[in-house]
Amino acid sequence: MINSSGPSDLAKAADGADYVLHVSTPFLGAGFHPLKWGQYRFVGGMKLLVVDASTRKVVASGDYMVNDFKKYTDYDGVLADDAAFVRRELAALKKAATDHFMANILGISTP
């Protein structure tokens, strides 16, 4: 486990690889609707760093954020079915961020 997102520390963990791919989730949460207290939305973001292990320099990076003002639920909805709303939104964030990073940061097309 790496406790740093610094390029030099990440490169040390390369273990013979040419590049290190570091994906982090700097924030996740639920926010109130600004005009409808008691209605919550999911907010979250992910960050990507690609580090060249030999030079210890960042060769690609990007951020992705979701803050969907169209998907709201009440407090009970956030917790219902073992937090199914949160798990569903986390899965959507992971998929959307992966697609964004691949297409826009790494230049990899997906089928």
Helix % is 25-40%
Number of helices: 2
- Give the total of beta strands: 4
| Main sheet properties | 4 strands, antiparallel
- List unreliable stretches of 5+ residues: none
Straight-line N-to-C gap = 32 Å
Mean pLDDT: 86
Strand content: 35-45%
Per the principal axes of the C-alpha atoms, what is the gross shape?
Answer: elongated
- Gyration radius over CA: 17 Å
What series of H and E elements makes up the topology? Answer: HEEEEH
Specify the structural class. Answer: alpha+beta
How many structural domains are formed by the residues?
1
Protein model, in words:
The chain is an alpha+beta fold and 111 residues long. The protein has one domain (7-105). The chain is built from two helices and four strands, in the order αββββα. It has helices at residues 7-12, 75-105, and strands spanning 19-32, 39-52, 57-67, 73-74.
What's the structural blueprint in terms of helices and strands?
Layout: H1 7-12, E1 19-32, E2 39-52, E3 57-67, E4 73-74, H2 75-105
Antiparallel strand pairs: 1-2, 2-3, 2-4
Brief account:
With 111 residues, this protein is of the alpha+beta class. It has helices at residues 7-12, 75-105; strands at 19-32, 39-52, 57-67, 73-74.
Question: Any key phrases for this structure?
Answer:
single chain, about 110 residues, alpha+beta, 4-stranded antiparallel β-sheet, 4 strands, elongated
